[in-house]
C-alpha cells in the first residue's frame, strides 16, 4: 500500500471522524514479510524472468479487426514473465523491482482475507471461534471488503497509484464498447482469476452464439421464403377443401363444431419453424454445441497457462472452509500430509446427506405440483375461452381464427402464469439450496460450490423446462378420440394441440419464458443495484460524495456476495439449455441469446465496476461444476431435439405421406390434409362430449352433416377395426423411431469424431508449459550453484562438504569454480 494511504488511514481513529459520524473504519494492511510467507504457503507463482519464447506469428487482418481491438497497454498491462512458486528464502531469485508493487492488489486482498477467515479470536465451551465470517454474522463488523483503487469516473490523482478501475470503466464497462474485445488480463489483475475466467467464458460463449444465430436466421428465412408455397397450408386455406372440412369439438359441452379453414393463418405461421430447415438446424446445433465445448477447453487451457493456474487444482485440496474447521471438532491423521486434520464422522455425514436429499426431493415435488397446477389451469380455462371466442358464420370463423384461437389464448395465458410461478419459486430456491448445502458442512470451498451448483441447477432445470417438456412431449399425445377421450383426474379432458400444431405452441412457450427471464434478469442486474446505491448514499451522506473517503464511498456500494458469480453462471447455463434442448422448435433462440449476451457482458462489467464493492480475489482455473452440467445439457439436447422433430413436428408424417401414401404416380403433398384427418360419426357422441345445442353454429345442419374430422390415423366408422389405429399410423411410428435412432447416432458419431480430432490443450501451450518447467528447474539449479559459490568464497578456511552421491556432480561443478580450497567426502567410490 502507498505511504500516503497509510497516513490517511491512521487519522480515522474514532467513528466521530468518519463522514457520517456513526461508523468506525478499520483498514487492514499486510506487511511484506506476511505477504511473502503466505504467498509461499498458498504456492502463488511469481515472476522470475521475462519470457523469451518467441511467439508464433499470427496471421491477422489488422485492417479488418482493428476497430474491435483495444490498445495493447489495456489488453496486456504487464510484461509476460516466466513464473515459479514463490519461496521466501529465495526472494532475490524473483524479479522484484519494487516491493510495494511486486504483489498485485488482488494478491494482497486475497491473502488478507485468507488470514482473516482463519484467525482464532476466542473459545466458547471448548468450541473455537474462527474467522471474519462469524464476526460478520454476529454483527461485530458490518462489512469486510477490499477497496477500489480510485473512482470509476476519473483517474487517480495520487502519484504511483493504479487506476485500473478507471481504465476498466472507460474501455470495458460502458455500453458504447459493446463491439470491443474484453481486457481479460486487466480484469484478472484487478478482480482475480475467478472473475476473469467467468468473463472469458461469457465472451467466448457470445462469440460462438454468433455462428449459431446466423444459421438459425437462415433457417427462419427459408421458412419465410416458402411461406406461401407449402401445399398443406394451401389446402387448409382453400375454401373448397379446408372450408368444407368440419372438425370435431376441442372440448366438452362449450366447444362446438368448427371448420378447418379457421386455422389458415396458424398453419402458415407454424411453417416458419416446422420445415426441412428445422431438421438441418437441429443436427447443426448438436454439432455446434460440441464445437463450443471443445474450443472452450482449448481457450481455457491457454488461460490456465497464461494466468499461472496449471497446478492450481492440487492446491485446492488442502483449502479447508473455516466453517468445516470450526464445526468438526474431531481430528484424525491425514496419511498424505501426516498431519492431524478435522473430519466428520460417517454417521453424521450420512444423516446430513439424507436430510439434504429429502429436502431436494420435496422441493422438486413442489415444482412438479406447480406445473400440474398450470396444466389443470390450461384444461379448465380452455373451455372458458372456447365459450368466449365463437363465430356464427364462416366469415366470422375466419376472422377469429386469424386473430386468436381458444388454444392460443390458453397457451399464452398459461405461459405467462408459468413464468410468474418460475420467478416466485426461484426466490425460494436460492435460499433453500444454500441452507441445504450449509447443513452438509462441506470440506473445501470447491466442494461447497460444486454441490450448491448441482442443487440450484437441478431446481432451475425442473422449474424452467418442465412446462416446455409438457408442451413438447405430452400435450396432444394422450387425447384419445371422439367418444372415448382421456381425462386428467377423471374430470378435465386432456388438452389437444393448437390447430396449427404443437410446435407453434412450444415456440410461443419458449419465447415467453426465455425472453421474460432475460428482460427480468437485466432489469434486476442493472436497475436494482443503481436504485439501492442511490438511496443508500442519499440517506447516509449529507456532504457531497466527493468529500467522502475511498472506504466510505465503497461502503455505500452493494455488497459482493460470496457466490456472486454463481448466479451469473446459472443465468447463462439456463439460457444455454433453452437454445440447445428446445432449439428445433425455435431457430431464432440463438439470435435472442446473442443480443441478450452482448448486453449482458456490458451490464455485468458496469455492475462490477461501478455498483458493487470490489470482490475478494479468488483463483479458479475452470468454470467448475458448470463444465459437467454443460456437457450433460449437450447430450440431452441431441435426444430432445430428435424427439421434437419426430413427435412434436409434423415433418415425419409429411415425409411418410410424400413417399408412400401420395395418390399419384409422382411423389406429391396434394391430399395430405385429408389423409391426416380421421372420421367420426357424430351420432356416437356421448352426452359428456356432445356440444350444447345452443352453441352449434347456424351453418351446421345435423340432417346433412353426420361426421366430423379429428387429427389422428384411425379407421372410419363402419370398418371392421373401427377407430383403431391404421397401418399408416404404425408406419409413421416406425419412421419416427428410425429417425430418432439415425439422428442421434449421426450426431453423436460426429460429436465423437470432433472431440477426438480437436485436442483439449493447444500444441503450442503444451510446448510452452514444458519449456517453462524446464527453464524454471534450470534457473533454480543455477541459482543454487551461485549461492553455493558465494558461500564458499566467503569462507576463510577450507570447507568440509558432505555430499550425497546423487548430488555429487553439482557439488563438483561448484568446487571447480570456487576460489577457496574444499575437502569433499562421499561414500561413493
TrEMBL record:
Keyword annotations: Cell membrane, Glycoprotein, Membrane, Transmembrane, Transmembrane helix
Location(s) in or outside the cell: Cell membrane; Membrane
Membrane-related topology note: Multi-pass membrane protein
Main location: membrane
GO terms assigned for molecular function: chloride channel activity; protein dimerization activity
Domain Anoctamin transmembrane span(s) in chain numbering: 187-772
Name of one Pfam family that matches: Anoct_dimer
Ranges that cross the membrane: 198-224, 276-296, 353-377, 408-429, 576-599, 629-648, 738-758
UniProt record similarity statement: Belongs to the anoctamin family.
Protein name: Anoctamin
Record organism: Erpetoichthys calabaricus
Amino acid at each position: 500500500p502507498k505511504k500516503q494511504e497509510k497516513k490517511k488511514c491512521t487519522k480515522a481513529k474514532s467513528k466521530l471522524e468518519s463522514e457520517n459520524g456513526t461508523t468506525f473504519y478499520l483498514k487492514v494492511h499486510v506487511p511484506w514479510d506476511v505477504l511473502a510467507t503466505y504467498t509461499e504457503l498458498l504456492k502463488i507463482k511469481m515472476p522470475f524472468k521475462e519470457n523469451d519464447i518467441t511467439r508464433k506469428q499470427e496471421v491477422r487482418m489488422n485492417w479488418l479487426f482493428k476497430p474491435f481491438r483495444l490498445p495493447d497497454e489495456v489488453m496486456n498491462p504487464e510484461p509476460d514473465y516466466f513464473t515459479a512458486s514463490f519461496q521466501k528464502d529465495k526472494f532475490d531469485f524473483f524479479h522484484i523491482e519494487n516491493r510495494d508493487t511486486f504483489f498485485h492488489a488482488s494478491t494482497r486482498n486475497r491473502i488478507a482475507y485468507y488470514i482473516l477467515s482463519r484467525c482464532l479470536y476466542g473459545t466458547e465451551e471448548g468450541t473455537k471461534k474462527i474467522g471474519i465470517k462469524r464476526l460478520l454474522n454476529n454483527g461485530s463488523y458490518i462489512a469486510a471488503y477490499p477497496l477500489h483503487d480510485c473512482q470509476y469516473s476519473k483517474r487517480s490523482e495520487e502519484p504511483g497509484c493504479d487506476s485500473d478501475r478507471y481504465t476498466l470503466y472507460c474501455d470495458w464497462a460502458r455500453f458504447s464498447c459493446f463491439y470491443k474485445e474484453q481486457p481479460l488480463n486487466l480484469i484478472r489483475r484487478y478482480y482475480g482469476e475467478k472473475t476473469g475466467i467467468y468473463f472469458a467464458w461469457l465472451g467466448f460463449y457470445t462469440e460462438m452464439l454468433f455462428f449459431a444465430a446466423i444459421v438459425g436466421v437462415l433457417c427462419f428465412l427459408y421458412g419465410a421464403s416458402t411461406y406461401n408455397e407449402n401445399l398443406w397450408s394451401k389446402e387448409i386455406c382453400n375454401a373448397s377443401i379446408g372450408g368444407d372440412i368440419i372438425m370435431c369439438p376441442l372440448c366438452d359441452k362449450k366447444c362446438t363444431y368448427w371448420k378447418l379453414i379457421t386455422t389458415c393463418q396458424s398453419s402458415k405461421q407454424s411453417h416458419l419453424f416446422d420445415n426441412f430447415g428445422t431438421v438441418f438446424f437441429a443436427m447443426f446445433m448438436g454439432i455446434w454445441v460440441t464445437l463450443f465445448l471443445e474450443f472452450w477447453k482449448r481457450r481455457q487451457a491457454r488461460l490456465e497457462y497464461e494466468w499461472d493456474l496449471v497446478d492450481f487444482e492440487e492446491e485446492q485440496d488442502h483449502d479447508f472452509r473455516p466453517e468445516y474447521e470450526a464445526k468438526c471438532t474431531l481430528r484424525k491423521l491425514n496419511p498424505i500430509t501426516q498431519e492431524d486434520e478435522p473430519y466428520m464422522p460417517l454417521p453424521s455425514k450420512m444423516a446430513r446427506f439424507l436430510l439434504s436429499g429429502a429436502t431436494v426431493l420435496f422441493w422438486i415435488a413442489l415444482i412438479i405440483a406447480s406445473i400440474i397446477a398450470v396444466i389443470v389451469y390450461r384444461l379448465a380455462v380452455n373451455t372458458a375461452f372456447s365459450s368466449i371466442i365463437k363465430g356464427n358464420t364462416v366469415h366470422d370463423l375466419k376472422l377469429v381464427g386469424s386473430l386468436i384461437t381458444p388454444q392460443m389464448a390458453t397457451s399464452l395465458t398459461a405461459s405467462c402464469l408459468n413464468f410468474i410461478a418460475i420467478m416466485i419459486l426461484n426466490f425460494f430456491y436460492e435460499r433453500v439450496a444454500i441452507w441445504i448445502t450449509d447443513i452438509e458442512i462441506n470440506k473445501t470451498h470447491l466442494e461447497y460450490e460444486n454441490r450448491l451448483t448441482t442443487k440450484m441447477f437441478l431446481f432451475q432445470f425442473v422449474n424452467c423446462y418442465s412446462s416446455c417438456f409438457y408442451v413438447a412431449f405430452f400435450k396432444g399425445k394422450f387425447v384419445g378420440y371422439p367418444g372415448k377421450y382421456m381425462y386428467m383426474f377423471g374430470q378435465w379432458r386432456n388438452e389437444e394441440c393448437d390447430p396449427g400444431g404443437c410446435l407453434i405452441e412450444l415456440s410461443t412457450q419458449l419465447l415467453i419464458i426465455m425472453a421474460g427471464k432475460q428482460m427480468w434478469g437485466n432489469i434486476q442486474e442493472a436497475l436494482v443495484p443503481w436504485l439501492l446505491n442511490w438511496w443508500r448514499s442519499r440517506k447516509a451522506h449529507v456532504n457531497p460524495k466527493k468529500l467522502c473517503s475511498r472506504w466510505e464511498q465503497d461502503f455505500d456500494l452493494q455488497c459482493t456476495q460470496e457466490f456472486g458469480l454463481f448466479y451469473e453462471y446459472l443465468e447463462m447455463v439456463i439460457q444455454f439449455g433453452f437454445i440447445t434442448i428446445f432449439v428445433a422448435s425455435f431457430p431464432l433462440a440463438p439470435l435472442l441469446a446473442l443480443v441478450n449476451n452482448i448486453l449482458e457482458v456490458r451490464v455485468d462489467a458496469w455492475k462490477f465496476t461501478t455498483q458493487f464493492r470490489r470482490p475478494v480475489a479468488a483463483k479458479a482455473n475452470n468454470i467448475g461444476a458448470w463444465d459437467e452440467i454443460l456437457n450433460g445439457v449437450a447430450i440431452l439436447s441431441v435426444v430432445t431435439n430428435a424427439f421434437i422433430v419426430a413427435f412434436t413436428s409434423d415433418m415425419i408424417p409429411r415425409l411418410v405421406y410424400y413417399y408412400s401414401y401420395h395418390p399419384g404416380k409422382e411423389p406429391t403433398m396434394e391430399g395430405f390434409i385429408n389423409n391426416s384427418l380421421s372420421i367420426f360419426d357424430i351420432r356416437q357422441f356421448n352426452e359428456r362430449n356432445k356440444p350444447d345445442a345452443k352453441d352449434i353454429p347456424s351453418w351446421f345442419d345435423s340432417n346433412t352433416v353426420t361426421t366430423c374430422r379429428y387429427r389422428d390415423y384411425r379407421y372410419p366408422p363402419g370398418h371392421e377395426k373401427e377407430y383403431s389405429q391404421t397401418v399408416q399410423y404404425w408406419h409413421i411410428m416406425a419412421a419416427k423411431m428410425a429417425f430418432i435412432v439415425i439422428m442421434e447416432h449421426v450426431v453423436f458419431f460426429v460429436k465423437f469424431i470432433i472431440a477426438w480430432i480437436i485436442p483439449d490443450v493447444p500444441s503450442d501451450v503444451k510446448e510452452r508449459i514444458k519449456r517453462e518447467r524446464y527453464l524454471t528447474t534450470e534457473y533454480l539449479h543455477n541459482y543454487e550453484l551461485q549461492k553455493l559459490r558465494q558461500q564458499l568464497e566467503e569462507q576463510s578456511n577450507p570447507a568440509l562438504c558432505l555430499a550425497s552421491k546423487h548430488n555429487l556432480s553439482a557439488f563438483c561443478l561448484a568446487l571447480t569454480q570456487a576460489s577457496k580450497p574444499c575437502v569433499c567426502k562421499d561414500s561413493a567410490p
